[in-house]
Amino acid sequence: TTLTSDIQILPKALENINNTNAVIEQPEKIREILAHEPRVVAFAERILAGGIISSATNSMATFVVGIDPDEETRLGSRRTIVQGEWMTSDDREGAAIGDKMREVLGVEIGDKIVVTAQDYYGGLAGSAYRLVATFSTGNDQIDNGTVLLLRPTAQELLSFGGRVSKFGLRVEPREEVPRVVEDLKKKIGDGDLKVVTWEELIPMMAQLMRFQNGMLFIIALIVLTVVAAGI
Questions:
Q1: Which residue has the higher pLDDT, 194 or 211?
Q2: Nearest 5°: CA angle at 192, between 187 and 196?
């Protein structure tokens, strides 16, 4: 769920999880639809942009992700805080990065980092933030290439106004995910948005998980066979 959640609602122009070239212009309509869907027990609105993060000694490419920490907690996003304290709604000038990124940038908690990105209108925008936390998700792509800002902070940096990049949804019971996808597609309509599961968004990861599950089943079957033969 760190990257994808059970379901995502996102612009059709976002062909995969790494695209940053489209936004949802009227997120309030999506909020209204989700508020009346009881199987969606939580959702999070996210900002996504490509950019550069810099310290006094180094720079590197990054994804700029704007989040609401409380929404992400309800969604079930996983992370381990390595240093500092997790972001709160008061950290408007704060940022969190992967601990592996911190090592490359050569910064410590409390240091200033500069985030530069292309804003909604195509201009170059940048601002300095205080490092409040580093995290580890177990995903190298995230830990080496993501800077987290509060959603309002990211919207201000990127001149998004009230726009967002995507919605992440948590569905219960999980077996209802396919039905929820179909129902949301009907409610949202055939416009500029699409509704996808995480398997559709990153099929290679879904295939890898199916392979791993298959291997675990085979190993368990072999162990049970050996035990049965011994008995």
A1: 194
A2: 65
